[in-house]
Amino acid sequence: MKTDIDAYYPSNGRVILHVDMNAFYCSVHEAEEPEKYRGKPTAVAGSIELRKGIIVTCSYAARQIGISTGMHVNRALKLCPDLIIIKPDFHLYRKYSSAFMKIAYSYTPLMQATSIDECYLDITGSRQFGTPQQIAEEIQRRIEEELALPCSVGIAPNKLLAKMASDMKKPRGISVLRIRDVPRILWDRPCGELFGIGGKTAEKLRKLGIYTIGQLAKTEEEILIRAFGVVGAWMKQAANGIDHSPVLEEREQNKSIGHTTTLPTDIQAREDVNRVLLNISDQVARRLRRQELVAGGVQITIRTPDMKTITRSHTLDTPTENGADIYEEARRLYVEHWSWDKPVRLLGITLQHLTPKSEAAIQLDLFEYEKHPKKESLTQTMDMLRNKFGENAVVTAGMLGDDPSVLLRNHKVRGTSLQMDFVNKEGLDLP
Questions:
Q1: Binding-site residues for Mg(2+), please?
Q2: Which residues does the entry assign to the active site, renumbered to this chain (predicted)?
Q3: Which positions are annotated as active-site residues?
């Protein structure tokens, strides 16, 4: 027998919620120290002492006076001298993230976390908790009461519209967006406001004479496919509010990534130890990047000739995927906890506190911020070459030893000659 509750749940469709935490990092600090931060303009950023950091996020009080994500700290302070700059605390953010997702998960096992501060919930089978509106209100209320955090919730028949709906009212909003509402609510908006369409794609659409989501929805699919490939078909469907992607249940994430090397002979010389740590750092960093993760901690393992094993670890201030960062931390741990006059039989590095890269705000100072795209491009190029031609296609000088003539040799890989050139933090020279 059909109940009043059943009327809110389609017989052949889905009901999806998108829970989006509002100004998450700043809100977490406010929840921890309300007497210090409540109602004040705050921003989370790094390199506070140098005033060169980039704003990761800011409170709504700060947004009202023109502060925005991506703004340089010094510019933000000129706009608002009273702006409170807070250093990131990723362990605290993960703690609150886990807590709010635990609340959300109690209403359905079909939960998909897409970043540290948002998740999708398929509540099609959650009638026992009430109507979709009631469930959204209860989740929002519990997160506010139990964690002192604000959130917005979107209610829709699919993930795309649920995400769009959660952005409609911030902070602390609850919005419903049905497919029949799409023409009235979305079609007059610029294409760049459709979730999944970035600035470059929006610009390309404008060159085709397509400025609004409504125009995109009415464009012939063949035209879009010719311009964008298979993505064109998705764009037309999305503009019409159609999205069939499922809410993927949360899978247990790797808790650590590690690698150890048992050495053919005992070593203790500084250059030998450094070379081994550099090689291991490179290997674990590549595995990290393949899984699109960043590491929040580094642990080293040392085994002595008499088979005694010690481990030492340290939590990083900022998560990283960079082999150089991992190497520097591993080398620092070795120097701090071991002695150069003591031989070692085995060395290992384990990356801990892993987080999806999409969830981590990797804070850079202004100098690093400007160089970051070049470094990331270099890393991607090196990974691509190694994936295609093998591990030895590109190596750093430190991995090869002190003989500079080694750097000039030609390395034959599947009939292709790749000059083994010096790779440093500044760039990669390829013939």
A1: 20, 117
A2: 118
A3: 118
